[in-house]
Structures are given as structure tokens and as C-alpha cells.
Amino acid sequence: MNQSLWISKTGLSAQDTRLATISNNLANAATVGFKRDDVVFEDLLYQIRRQPGAQSSQNTQLPSGLQVGTGVRVIGTQKEFSPGSMQITDKPLDMAIVGRGFFEILLPDGSAAYTRNGQFQINADGAIVTARGLELQPSITVPEDAQTISISSDGIVEATIAGQPAAQNLGTLTITNFVNPTGLQAIGSNMYTETAASGSPSTGTPGNQGLGSIEQGSLENSNVDVVEELVSMITTQRTYEMNSKVISTADQMLQYISQNL
Amino acid sequence: MDKAVYIAMASGQNIMAAQAIHANNLANANTNGFQADFAQARSLGVYYGEGLSTRAYSRSENPGTDFQRGSLNETGRDLDMAVEGDGWISIQAPDGTEAFTRAGSLKLDPNGQLLTANNLPVMGNGGPIALPPADKVTLGADGTITIQPAGQPADVLATVDRIKLVKPDEAELVKGKDGLIRRRDGQEQVPDASIRLQSGFVETSNVNAVDELTSIMALARQFEVNVKMMKMIEENSSAVAQVLRAQ
After folding, report:
1. Residue B85, φ and ψ in degrees, nearest 5
2. pLDDT tens digits, residue range A15-56?
């Protein structure tokens, strides 16, 4: 059978994967703290059908052989951790990380997850939690009669209590970072978990040792550039169409030969 | 039956092989840094002796790779780089030999090794580049890597290594079975200090999609002509048999 059929099939599935990634990026264009994915393509192995330099007769050599590539594959996706733009919300428990790093979140199974989505709330016990009810680490408990909560850029959380002149210190938030954030595993709901590729977490005071500082009352928008995604969508679609054209051409050739011979 | 049918048949097979080369180029139309392969047909005479040399087979082959530049695409990533003009980034192939690539989408692994997108180490002044923990990595125009070491203020910068950029003679280069470009003689290439990088850009595939698609269409029509030839030879042969039967 015509090998072009299988080669172009790899082209189609690679563009399919790319389109899925683009549509996920666009779907999350308004998701706070979302980081876009890029697809990385790689050409597949080549088959040598005729070795260059082989003897074509007793005293002549083939000047060039026949080496045919077998298509393309998706080698992986890369999370792009460039910062998104800031939006001011003025809600006391909205936090954005200015710079590198993540908030640490406690998963129900006791392990840690990491996020850059700083939309926090208070649950019935006064703990600071994400919208899914997972607790922010280190855990901070806000007293019931707190009137205002203020968070400094280096993570000190204070509350003013009715009738008390001095603010009450509730604890200090930390920021966690990784050598290779691109290697983190995305587990959905804006959270990541540590992998062998990301390296181990290093936790520290916000604004120190290269970690980002905390900006209260702001949120980090997604870093999806919709124009770029739409342009990528056009190139993906056209590449897809051309590869499918090759498949139909190869198909017509086979049809022609089976009808005419 | 006339032996010409074998010439038409071999030609049809070779057309399919040439189409496979173009199909592979088209499948990689969106692969960053991909270099398209050429396909050509060459006539291969069977007999050059006395009398009429009427038999010549056509054979498809790929005489080489197209080393023209792809276009530059701005990504804004710190670790993306495109080579300006002629030149290549030196990387280490899985078998330990030196290979060259123009796909400059780089990344760091947890040990600080600088890798290409398909996990091959990028070569520096003295072998594969490994960076100490850094808050920010900047690629200079000449391949120099400047980092802001982890935990240091923004004014403390350190130059750690320099990406090995090379400019081999393109006639010396050949694409291997793993799709990597190497020198034909397997030698290492000396670095060239004149090559410039554009940080924040990647070079796209240099495949001309229209060109590839047109070639595939043209080859498809040529294939049909060959099938037509086979059909005619078959008709001739049955006509001869018809004449002989009439005697």
C-alpha cells in the first residue's frame, strides 16, 4: 500500500492534538492563574530504502540513496509559566504572586498541590481555603470577630479585631518554587503536583530568595494570548487540510490502479 | 508480454516512494526547526551496449535536505532562540555524537541541564550545558547564557556558559535516520563566533506546503500515466494473441 497514507495519518493526529491544546488554552483564557500549553512536534524516524554509496554496478556507486521519513509525532506539551496580567479586585482574600512561585494547597489525601490561583475564601472553621474548599498551607485561621484582614507583600497575615487597637498576627504565608516548573504535573482545577522532572519544592518567605511577593486584592489572569492561539488555529487547520488532501490523493491512486488494471 | 510493463510498474512504485517523502515534509509543516527533504527521480539505463538502448528505469531518491531557513515566530519565552542567518545549534545526539539543530525551543531539567524540546543536551564551551539554580535565564545574542542565581537580587548576574553555535559547510551535512543533522564525516565542528541568536523567537519548519502538495498532485497524475501504459501494453499483448489465434 502507499506509505503516504500512514505518513499523512501521523500528520493528521498531530494537528488534532495541537488543536485540542489550542482549544483548551482558549477555553481557559479567563481562568485565573491558568498557564497555557504549547505542543512540541518532532519528526519520526527515517527508513533507508536504498543506502547512498551502495554499488549500482561493479564499478559505479549510487550517488544518493532513498531515505524516507515516517511522519511526525507529538513529543510533549510544555506549560508556559510566563506571568499573566494583573487585575485588581480589592477583595481581601484575593492574592496574586508577583514573580515566581506557587501557593501550597493541602489535598484531601494529605499530599501537597501547588497553584497560582489566589482566589481564597474562609470556610466555616475560619480557615483560608480555595474555591474547592482545600486548605491553604501553612494554615491560617481567621477569628470570627475579625473586621479586616491584611496581608503584607512578604506574607504576614494580620486581622483587626473589634475593640482591640493592635492588629492580631495570624501567621505567615509562604511561597514554594521549583527548579523546573515546566516539569510539574497539571492535575486540573489550576493545581500542579511535584514530579521527578520538576525537582523538589523549595519553600520560603515571599519576596526573598527570588520568590515572588504577594499582592493582596489582586488576581493573576491567565497568560493565554488569544490572538496567538487563533493564528495557531489557522496554521493547524490548513496543515490538517493539506495532510488529508494527501490521503485522498493516495486513495485515488489506489482506486485508479484497481479500476484500470 | 512486452517487458515495458516492468518499467511502468517500477516507475509507479518509485512514484509512491517520492510521494512518501513529500508526505513526510507535509506532515512536519508545523514542526519547529524541521528541514524538508528533497525527492528526485533519476533514469537508470539497463543496457548501454550495441543496438538500441530502449530500457531505462526511473528511480526515486532523496539527493539531500533543504537547508533553507524557516520563518521566525515570536514566542516571548526566555529559553526560545532562533539562529539568525546561516548557522546551527550544537546538540548531543542519543548516541553521544554531535548533531546540529535549528529548533531552539530549550528547557531546563531538574538538574539544571539545558535540553532541546526533544530532550537532547545542548552543547556549550566544554560539553553539555548545566546551569546552577537560577531565578532568571537570559540568552545573549552570541549564545552567552547569563543567569540571576537563585535567591540573589536582580543586579547580581553571572555568565555561566555559552551555547556552541557552528557554521558547517552545508554540503557536508546529512540527515540521519533519527532525523538529526550531522556532518557526513562524523567529525565535530569548531564553534563559530560570528553567529547571532534571536532570543524569544523560534524558527518554524522550512516546508513550503504549497510546493509539497503540488508535487504530490503531479506525482499522482504521473502515476496514472504509468498505469495507463501498463493497460496499453496489456492491450497490445492481447491484440498479438488475438492475431495469433486467427491463424
Report:
1. 65, -150
2. 999 999 999 999 999 999 999 999 999 999 999 888 877 777
